[in-house]
Design a protein that fits this description.
Elements lengths: L35 H6 L25 E4 L9 E4 L4 E5 L4 E10 L8 E10 L7 H6 L1 H4 L17 E7 L2 E8 L10 E3 L3 E3 L1 H10 L5 E4 L8
Parallel strand pairs: 2-10, 4-8, 7-9
Antiparallel strand pairs: 1-4, 2-3, 3-4, 4-9, 5-6, 5-10, 6-7
Length: 223
């Protein structure tokens, strides 16, 4: 996969920073057998400032759970590649391997960043503030949070966020956790990339500030 040769276009960034969705939780569980390996992987996280509950794996498709896979690419180890069309994010590793995470992405392509950026900042239990555009579109929903929401269990960014910058400017695009784990694998957010909370904690500890993030166009071929 020679994704480093593709050219990218920066999408409209003004609607991204809210990173909040509106999809309802499904009423019927998927009914797939639950692997004990994943039960342990997605168990409640101890030692956090706020509770991180276990993921109800009956409401997440197995294909979107974290796993190490073969991933031939010319990108350097430590690079994160987000494929919105497939609803995956890949952390490139040595030896043609990658850790693949299921993600939720923006419900409208115009809201999505595309291209190459740098993680300029990382935050634990980050503060969330809706954009002016979000407040203008849905004042009753977002207006009460115009001054921001402190980190915590109800914050839509979840326990971790990584902030993407391009050419020294904030793209308003983030990689972050979620209060809605059942939306992983869907197009639901206002533009940012959401992970299961256990997955964003895992990715957060693996990548330092300065890491490269490549976001493919939504229609790009998958690995």
């Amino acid at each position: 996969m020679n994704i480093d040769r593709r050219s990218f276009v920066i999408g409209l960034p003004f609607a991204l920073a809210g990173c909040m969705g509106s999809q309802r939780m499904p009423l019927i569980a998927l009914g797939e057998p639950i692997d004990p390996y994943y039960v342990a992987m997605y168990a409640a996280v101890e030692g956090e400032a706020f509770p991180v509950p276990a993921v109800d794996l009956r409401k997440v498709k197995a294909q979107f759970l974290r796993q190490e896979i073969a991933y031939p690419t010319n990108e350097r180890p430590g690079t994160i590649v987000v494929d919105p069309g497939a609803r995956y994010a890949y952390l490139v590793m040595e030896g043609g391997r990658a850790i693949r995470y299921g993600v939720g992405v923006g419900k409208e392509e115009a809201f999505n960043f595309q291209g190459t950026a740098t993680i300029a900042r990382k935050a634990e239990w980050p503060r969330w503030t809706p954009t002016k555009d979000m407040i203008a579109r849905q004042p009753e929903r977002y207006g009460p949070y115009a001054g921001g929401m402190a980190g915590g269990i109800d914050n839509p960014l979840g326990p971790r966020a990584m902030y993407l910058y391009k050419d020294g400017r904030d793209t308003l695009f983030r990689l972050h956790g979620t209060t809605e784990p059942w939306t992983i694998g869907t197009m639901v957010s206002s533009g940012c990339v959401r992970f299961l909370n256990q997955d964003i904690i895992d990715l957060y500890r693996r990548v330092p500030v300065g890491s490269t993030v490549i976001v493919l166009p939504s229609g790009a071929p998958t690995a």
